[in-house]
Amino acid sequence: MGKVLDETDETGRNLREVPKQNAPEVAVEVTPDSAGGWDVRLAFRHFRCSAPGARPAAAIGRGLAHLFVDGRRIARLRTPAYHLAAGLVPHGTHQITARLYADDGTVWAVRGKPVESTADITVSDVETDAAEPPATAASAVVGE
Asked: Among 28, 51, 56, 101, which is 20 to 30 Å from 132 by CA?
């Protein structure tokens, strides 16, 4: 189930190193919601979310995702979809990050880096003549 490292992420959880080949991967996409707020969609590769109440043990390619806004954890996800309330992302540019964790609380990692993906979103003031939604961009970081 990989090797638990002494290194931790910024939340203090130990990294669990796995080989790059067949390592869990996550991609995050954030789109504006018509009612305000944002729809967050996660895409997994070599990873499945565990059911609530799963045994707290690491199993390769299983666990949950933590969702962060600007480095602050806002949700633990066991599904690939989440609605992000507009109030959590005020005016400005924000980073939405999904990071993968094993059921024992360790962080899946490749080459000493957490398995995660980040999307940048920019929230602008509502303009009466603007028809375009705010732009989003996503970039995956998988142990690089």
From this structure: 28
